[in-house]
Design a protein that fits this description.
The protein is an alpha+beta fold and 133 residues long.
Length: 133
Amino acid sequence: MGAAQRRLAVSFEEAVRREAVRGFSRGPLEIATHARSDAERRGVALPEVLPCEAHGPDGTALAGCAKLYLPVGDAPPSERPFAFVLQLAREMDSTLVWIFVAFGHRHARAGVRSVYERAHRQLHGRFPERGRS
């Protein structure tokens, strides 16, 4: 199997997943639920993820993380408004795995934190200090 087809398992800690989807309406919840089911069943192909900025302009620090645009498919990123943020980790047996960090809107809107800000909070215990750019 070539690198283009390589798929890594995704680990979803239930408490993290529950917090990540709290407050979303039915449409986004269905997108997140379908993406989780698909990721747990098939894993995530490496070409489907893009690296997050290690230090984003919004003050986020997401080194070692990647974004999976949702809903997964052939639509251009501009038509996929949500994302999972995943963090690459190595299991005890040295197998690489994605750890689910956050779900949300890719781009911040008034009164709504972006998935990147939500991921920063999950990883660092607080929202980014600089706020939105």
